[in-house]
Amino acid sequence: MDRKILLTNDDGVYSNGIWAAYEALSEIADVTVVAPATQQSAVGRSISIFEPIRATKISVNGVPAYAVGGKPTDAVIIGLFALDLQPDLVVSGVNIGENLSFESIMTSGTVGAALEAANHGTPSVAFSLQVWDQGDKFDDPRHVGSSFEEAKTVVRDVCERIFARGFPAKTDVVNVNIPSKVEGGYEVTTLARKLFHTGVERRLDPRGRPYYWINGPLVEDAEEGTDVHAIRKGNVSVTPITLDCTAAGADDGMRDLLK
Q1: Could you give the number of structural domains in the chain?
Q2: Pick from 78, 102, 106, 120: CA 20 to 30 A from residue 244's CA?
C-alpha cells in the first residue's frame, strides 16, 4: 500500500486498544506498530534521555511489532528516526479511557505521542475510548472488557477522511474521543478545563507512616461545545490541537506587567 501509518499508544504494545486500531487501519494502509513494552499511561510527553532505549521486534497474533523499553514519545522517536518508517500519519491509541480537557491532554501519554510526532512534522491523530468502569483504566490492557467495535469504525473513518482530504489546516494533532456508546455523530469541540475533581486520599502504612493516593471522580459535565460535554451527549469529540502554547491575547497584559 502507498499509505504508511506508524501506530503507537501508551497502554503498551499488548493492549487490546492498539490491536483494535491495527485491525481498523491495516486494510487501508501499511501499518507498523511501535509502542511501549509496558503500561505508560499518564507520562505525558516525557522522554528518556538518561538511559538507553531498547526496541525489540516481537510478534503479536502473528503480526510483527516493536516493543520499546521507554515512553510513548520514545516509541515515536524510535519509529521515525531509528526505524526510519517515514509514515504519512502517526496514530496513537486506541487509549482505554477518555483524554478530554486541558487537564488530561497535558498528562496523557496517548496525546503526548501524537504531539511528539507533530513536533517532527508528521500529522498525527490520538484516539481514546470512554470507559464507564474506571477500573478498566488500571486493569491489564490485554483483557479489558470494553468493546472496541464502534471505536474501530471511527478510527478507520477519520483516517480515511484525512488521507482523502488532507490534514486540517492550522492543526498539529487531531484529538478524537469516542463515547462508550455512540449516540450521535462527530462534533468539533474545544477543550474543557477539567476532567476530574482532584482529590488526595491519605492512608497509613503498616508502620504508621502516611502515604497518599491522588484520586477524584470525573466531572459531571462541562460547557456546550467542549469535548467533555460532547462525550456526555454521546457524540464523538474531535478537537484540533496546536503545539503552540502561547497565550493568545495576553500580550497587552504582559506588557503592562513589564512596564
Answers
A1: 1
A2: 78
Q: What is the number of residues in the chain?
A: 259
Q: Do the beta carbons of residue 179 and residue 228 sit within 8 Å?
A: no
119 is in an annotated binding site: no
Which residues, in sequence order, are CB contacts of 203 under 8 Å at separation 6+? 210, 211, 212, 213
Confirm whether residue 10 is marked as ligand binding. Answer: yes
Residue type, 136: D
User: Do the annotations mark residue 157 as ligand-binding?
Assistant: no
Helices (H), 11-108: 16-25, 72-77, 101-105
The CATH number for 108's domain is 3.40.1210.10
Instruction: State pLDDT tens for residues 72-86.
Output: 999 999 999 999 999
Which has more pLDDT, 132 or 120?
Answer: 120
In the chain, the N- to C-terminal Cα span, in Å, equals: 58
Q: Is residue 9 part of a domain?
A: yes
Chain-centroid distance, C-alpha 176:
8
Question: Quick one: pLDDT at residue 188?
Answer: 98
Q: Mind listing the pLDDT tens digit for each residue in 156-215?
A: 999 999 999 999 999 999 999 999 999 999 999 999 998 888 999 999 999 999 999 998
CA distance 240 to 168: 8
95 is in an annotated binding site: yes
The verdict on residue 205 lying in a domain is: no
* pTM confidence score: 0.92
Structural domain including 69 reads 4-195+221-244
pLDDT tens, 20-51?
999 999 999 999 999 999 999 999 999 999 99
Note whether residue 120 is domain-resident.
yes
Residue 175 included in any domain: yes
